[in-house]
Every structure is written in structure tokens, then in C-alpha cells.
Specification:
It is a single chain. With 420 residues, the protein is of the alpha/beta class. The protein has 14 helices and 17 strands. The strands form four sheets. It has an eleven-stranded mixed β-sheet with strand order 4-3-5-15-14-6-7-13-10-12-11, sandwiched between helices. A two-stranded antiparallel sheet has the order 1-2. The protein has a two-stranded antiparallel ribbon with strand order 8-9. Strand 1 and strand 2 form a beta hairpin. Helix 1 crosses helix 11. The two termini are 31 Å apart. The protein binds NADP nicotinamide-adenine-dinucleotide phosphate. The site of NADP nicotinamide-adenine-dinucleotide phosphate (NAP) has 16 residues, from loops. NADP nicotinamide-adenine-dinucleotide phosphate (NAP) binds next to loops.
């Protein structure tokens, strides 16, 4: 029997089976054998991908636990489906359910153009304070890539999700606010800004920085990763990006002193060699980092970045291993986690069952890891690797892989289960 929710919903009818995931006092998750997981189907190709994702995940969970564990899927609405059903793009019930059930997964959502509606994805991240955008990037054998040795890149990017120029504090050229600010800055600080400039504000705080860096270091330690690299543009933006670097080192030294070593310490005290069992913490200027991922990719592991650097870097890294089609993502905060495909709704393929569900399936694999269901997560990996090895792939990969066989979106998911 399901546990009755203590939360009031306006319209959502809750599942009658399954149980809620709860949080332990130390912040870890208490995951029942039949957890209720809310999902947003998504717009455009979203329904096709979600259908395929459930085939793969249910298959992996069944194979791993033989029926003892099972996900109870619970649909919540957002985007076009919500607008059609309820006249709202993002119903309050949807936000409540994600907070209530702690872990959710979503397909891509259309950002309605015009009408003053903000991106639903950005809104979800900000309203739920999902401050960590986590993007693992690795190459799957057989996936076409623009570089010679794509296997050398295997990084997990922790991108800060709530601050920086993404905070949405900006005013257009010649607006009263922009003009007022230009005057204020000249009158009070003696700094000239060219007339008619648009103005954007770039806030980066110790709180915002420290929590993303803490999450990145914890992840690196728990998953035996070898290094965490702080990526910043502190040589130019000293009090935002430079402060990000300084606060990042502070967290590393204040909270993880006995488990980390900085690059400086490695050179000063250990003859240039990282001591056994220590996590190396280093930093790189953002522009150099873009060169490093191409030239010396195997020297990097977990990367932690402010919002804008992380946006560019995660897509650039994804391109290096074959594009967004196979790149998963998650947005994680104290109040919950949403796992999501990193590409958009590709509306021209909606309902055709042809798109590549790899990104959403790998995001769901991250979700299984987040739940601690590692055996099922490993089966997903194994199934994907074998399916790619067999060159039975969706149209986007088939057109770049000589000798490949084109399969539908749902067939690709079924093959993953067969190949686990
Ligand atoms: P897009 O939906 O990612 O699609 C661009 C192209 O990428 C597609 O035409 C297709 O290329 C390829 N593609 C994307 N996903 C694919 C998949 N799963 N399998 C195979 N190919 C795939 O980008 P967009 O056209 O710029 O955006 C469309 C809508 O999505 C917009 O409303 C945008 O706001 C929204 N969006 C949402 C999210 C999100 O929810 N997180 C993210 C980005 C964009 P080919 O035509 O070459 O085959």
C-alpha cells in the first residue's frame, strides 16, 4: 500500500502503490524497494524518449533485483501537456510533487517563444534551488567523434546553476534602470560606462560557490575520482570568478583537509607527485581549460565551474565525445533532484519514434546511481555499450556509423535490455 501524502495537491491523484523516498537526518536518501518517482514526459520527442527510458530502466531493475525492487512511475505535468490540460505551463502541483518525492525525471520541454514566459527548465532549477548541474561526459565505443582519441575524455562537470550572469538581473540599453545604474556608478564610484549600454549583473557568492564545490568534492571522494579542477576566469574577473577559486580552495582545505592535497602542495611538499589516496585539487583558467580538454583530456576528472563557464564547457566536452545525443544530466539541490536529457524537444521528430533516447536513458542511469541502485545502473551501461558495439542505433548515429543498422527509439531501448 502507498503511504498517504501529508502534502495537499490541487489536482494530482497520487499513486496507490509504492512508497515515498525520504531523507535521513544526515541528508542521505532512504529508498524503499518500490519508490514512487514522478516524471515529466516532455514536449516534442519527449513522450517517445520517456517511453523508451521506462522500457530500459524497468528492464534493468527487473534483471538486477528479480522483482524485489521496482520503480512506481508517477506522471506529473509541465509544458504543452500541462498547458492543454490545466491552462498552466508549470502547475504548482508539479513543483510540490518534486519537493515531496525528492527525485524526479523529465524529458525536454519547449520554451514558448514570446508571451513573457521564462524557460521552464530555468524556472524549475531556480524555484527548487537545484544548484548543481551535473554532467558526466565520456565516450561510448563506436560513437563517431571529431577527435582522434575520444576515450581519453572522461569527466564529470559540476556547474553552479543559480548565480553568475544567469541570475537574470539585467536591463536593456536605454531603459531607465540601466541609465540610472550608469549614472550611479559614475557618481559614486567614478567608473565610466558607455552611454546606452545594456547592463547585466554577475553575482557570485561564498554560499553559492561553497555548496557546489562541496558537492563536487564529495562526489569525487565517494566515487574514487582522482582530481577536482576549479575552472574560473579569475585573472580578469577577480571579485567574482577569482573569488570562486579562493572560496573553492577554502572549502577543500577547511572541510576535507585530511583527504585532499592541492596542486601547489604537491609541488612544494611532495616532489610533484600526488600522495597515494589523496584527492588532487587544482585550478585552471577557463580558456586554458578548453585547450586542456582537447590536448590533455586524461589529466582531468571532476570539473567544478561557475554557471557560464560550465554551460560552454559541458556542451564543448559533449561535442568532443560525439554530441548531445548521448549526454546525460541532472540538476541537484538540497530539496530534490531532477534528472534530464540535455538536448531539446526536436519538434520535427515528435511522435515518430525515431529519436535517440540515449541521453534520457543515461540520465535515468544517473538517477539509479543517486538512489544507490548501482547494480541496475551498471546493467544500463553494459546494455548501451553492447548495443552500440552491435551498431544497432537510431537515425542520428546510423547516418555517421558505416555499416550500422537503423532502429527506432523504442527498439533501441529494447535492445539495451536484451544486451545487458
Ligand atoms: P533540439 O531540440 O535539441 O534539436 C536540435 C537538433 O538536434 C534536432 O533537430 C536533431 O538534429 C538533434 N537532436 C536533438 N535531440 C535529439 C535526439 N534525442 N535524437 C536525435 N537527434 C536529436 O534543439 P532546438 O531545436 O534548438 O530546440 C527545440 C526546443 O527545445 C526549444 O523550444 C528549446 O527551448 C527546447 N530546449 C529544451 C531543453 C530542455 O528541456 N532541457 C534544452 C534545449 C532546448 P537533426 O535534425 O540534425 O537530426
Amino acid at each position: 500500500m502507498g503511504i498517504a501524502s501529508t502534502v495537499n495537491y490541487k489536482k494530482l491523484v497520487l499513486p496507490t502503490v509504492g512508497e515515498k523516498i525520504t531523507k535521513n537526518p544526515d541528508g542521505s536518501l532512504n529508498v524503499p524497494n518500490k519508490p514512487i518517482i514522478p516524471f515529466i514526459e516532455g514536449d516534442g520527442i519527449g513522450p517517445d524518449l520517456t517511453h523508451a527510458m521506462k522500457i530500459a530502466i524497468d528492464g534493468a531493475v527487473k534483471k538486477a533485483y528479480g522483482g524485489e525492487r521496482e520503480i512506481v512511475w508517477f506522471e506529473i505535468l509541465a509544458g504543452e501537456k500541462a498547458h492543454k490540460a490545466e491552462g498552466e505551463w508549470l502547475p504548482a502541483d508539479t513543483l510540490t510533487a518534486i519537493k515531496d518525492y525528492l527525485v524526479a525525471i523529465k524529458g525536454p520541454l519547449t520554451t514558448p517563444v514570446g508571451g513573457g514566459i521564462r524557460s521552464l527548465n530555468v524556472t524549475l532549477r531556480q524555484v527548487l534551488d537545484l544548484y548543481a548541474c551535473v554532467r558526466p561526459v565520456r565516450h561510448f565505443p563506436g560513437v563517431p567523434s571529431p577527435v582522434c582519441e575520444p576515450d581519453k575524455l572522461n569527466v564529470v562537470i559540476y556547474r553552479e546553476n543559480t548565480e553568475d550572469v544567469y541570475a537574470g538581473i539585467e536591463w536593456s540599453s536605454n531603459s531607465p534602470e540601466a541609465n540610472q545604474l550608469i549614472k550611479y556608478i559614475k557618481d559614486n564610484f567614478g567608473k565610466e560606462i558607455r552611454p546606452e549600454s545594456g547592463i547585466g549583473i554577475k553575482p557570485i557568492s561564498p554560499l553559492g560557490t561553497k555548496r557546489i564545490v562541496r558537492a563536487a568534492i564529495k562526489y569525487a571522494l565517494e566515487n574514487n575520482r582522482t582530481s577536482v579542477t576549479i575552472v574560473h576566469k579569475g585573472n580578469i574577473m577577480k571579485y567574482t570568478e577569482g573569488a570562486f577559486r579562493d572560496w573553492a580552495y577554502e572549502v577543500a582545505k577547511d572541510e576535507f583537509r585530511d583527504r585532499i592535497v592541492t596542486e601547489q602542495e604537491v609541488f612544494d611538499d611532495f616532489g610533484g607527485k600526488t600522495p597515494e589516496g589523496k584527492l588532487l585539487v587544482k585550478d585552471r583558467i577557463a580558456d586554458s581549460m578548453f585547450q586542456q580538454v582537447l590536448l590533455r583530456p586524461d589529466e582531468y576528472d571532476v570539473l567544478v565551474t561557475p554557471n557560464l563557464n560550465g554551460d560552454y564547457l559541458s556542451d564543448a566536452c559533449a561535442a568532443q565525445v560525439g554530441g548531445l545525443g548521448m549526454a546525460p544530466g541532472a540538476n541537484i539541490g538540497e530539496f530534490g533532484a531532477i534528472f534530464e536529457a540535455t538536448h531539446g524537444t526536436a519538434p520535427k521528430y515528435a511522435g515518430m519514434d525515431v529519436s535517440n533516447p540515449g541521453s534520457l536513458i543515461l540520465s535515468a542511469k544517473m538517477m539509479l546511481d543517486h538512489l544507490g541502485w548501482r547494480e541496475a545502473a551498471e546493467l544500463i551501461d553494459r546494455g548501451i555499450v553492447k548495443t552500440l558495439e552491435n551498431k544497432t542505433v537510431t537515425y542520428d548515429l546510423e547516418r555517421q556509423m558505416p555499416g550500422a543498422t537503423k532502429v527506432k527509439c523504442s527498439e533501441f531501448a529494447k535492445l539495451i535490455v536484451q544486451n545487458m
